[in-house]
Amino acid sequence: MARANIHIALADASGVAPGVTFTTCLTRDIRIKADEEEKLKNVKEQNNNGQQQEQKEMENLANNPITPKEKKEGSIWNVNNYHWEEKCLTRWAKEELKNTLENLKIELSDKIFLQFFCSHVEGEASSSIRKKKKILIYDLKINSEWKAIKKNKNEQIEMEAKGHLCVNEIISDFIVDDENKYKYTFTFDNNSSEYTDMNFVIKSEIPSKMNSIIDAFISKMRDK
């Protein structure tokens, strides 16, 4: 009877419910510890795998340096253009597009010639590289005054028209081959009947001409 009382007292003092042996508790603790060690092992393996993958990429770039045909896009410190680097092109883009427009003389049908002046470019542009991949991001808008003349068969100026052009949605989200990627809004200073034909030619032909001009500008910006 005395032995039974001692057994119960010991069990109560250990925090184990009566009838549960110390062997059972010890087995459970060992299992919990083993599970925790297994989880820790898995985490370490995942970290090691990530580090090994990064190391392989670095070694691959080191073993395959840029050939003479490849262009060095990043800074001197950016070996093989591997690290993230961003270059702001906003100022260059605005000046380049403005100068391009104002130095053009666009020839249309019916001996109509159009020139831009007082051009203003709004928006932002940037170029980024990472792991040899170049990403060009831009969102630009053009506002410009224009003047057009129409010559007769003797090359003399027959008519002169003026107006305003706004080009919206010059953004990098569009596909290059999308013919409607830019939005054109025309304002004509002369809307009388005698200017109807001339205004129609300008409104119908300028968008395709401008598409080519803007696309060429974007290609040039991509090489910056």
From TrEMBL:
GO molecular function per UniProt: ATPase activator activity; protein-folding chaperone binding
Pfam families: Aha1_N
Region feature (Disordered): 41-70
Cellular-component GO terms for this entry: cytosol
Family per similarity comment: Belongs to the AHA1 family.
PANTHER family: HEAT SHOCK PROTEIN 90 HSP90 CO-CHAPERONE AHA-1, LD43819P
Coiled-coil segments on the chain, per record: none
Domain Activator of Hsp90 ATPase AHSA1-like N-terminal stretches: 86-224
Name of this protein: Activator of Hsp90 ATPase, putative (AHA1)
GO biological process, alphabetically ordered: protein folding
